[in-house]
Amino acid sequence: MLFTKPSWLTRSSTRRLESFHTVALVGAFILLWKVCYESISWPRSYFPRGELDASNATLGFEAILVVAPNKSTGGETVWRQEGLLRAADLAGLIVDILPQPHFPMEQVLASMGEERRKELIEHMEKGGPDGDFTDAEGKLRLGHLHVLKHVMSSNFSSALILEDDADWDVAIREQTPAIANAIRDLTSGVVGPWGFNWDYLALGHCGAGAVKDDKFRLIQDPTTGPAEDFKALWGPERDIKNNTRFVHETTGTVCTFGYAVSRHGAKKLIEHLSGSGQPLDIDYASFCNGGGLNCYAVTPEIIHHHRWTGHKITSGGPLHGALEEGETEQKFTVNIKYSARCNSDPDVLKAHPSKTKGELIQCLPTGISKDKYNSK
After folding, report:
1. 120, 124, 118: which is closest to 133 by C-alpha?
2. 284: left (phi over 0), alpha (psi -120 to 50) or beta
């Protein structure tokens, strides 16, 4: 029997029917995408402070958060926080210095390892801590833990965490896109400037171990400091060359000047830190090295701590002092070609009256400061 097209199925009605099918198909696709999208639990608003770009004001992360004392009452805390804000303004970054809660001594002691806790208590009983034996180690740990919890409570997909003495190049927003592309390539990232197939990105450190396989990328970067001046307390196995950075999977890093966490990375770190009492960077490194944290680093780093003139240093101290006993002879930042702190510091600018407007100042260590800085 031959099929006869119904009289009501005209050419125009056929088009309408095809259009209906198309709309229904698109609607079903949108519904499916919505279900999948929401099941991933994306943040409430992705990158509210700029374009979806690793060169934006938060370097492609949802926020830049600073670990710092709650109040700046003078002395060291002033140069740390005021200098950081000037450096951020010069480089065009938006940073948030989070209010820190008061940490009772009982909580500080509980956060430290048993051996360090006993040493600190002994020194306190003798009239107060000195040298390496201070409560700074415990407060540093609790401060980082507080910021990590803020990442989770704010529903951030990622955040860059800085210590308040951190420094970076004036061109940091030009440095990050190539590093982000390398991370995406290494991790097969699809969504976001940095992807999300990682837990921990060490952008600021004083040494990083590298995985000995193909888990690295070399990128060209004319903003690196001279290779012969490169300083690190540990690693890398690969030679450092001029105008080149090494982006790699890492078995762990030393120092926590600046690092990014994904949301799932922050969750892992909170759970891990809550049950351990090692020095913070050693704890992070052990977690990276077979402990379940998916870690990557860039070497030379793009964030380092700044040294202030007259700053007291004790070798091996809890705040990662990398100088021998003594005081710094100059303001400087290791491995950063054009320090944003120095180039926004009124005292440094006054000391270079011959510099023409717009010409950048280098604050790499020289003389005694360079000689005292320990490197592998």
Report:
1. 120
2. alpha
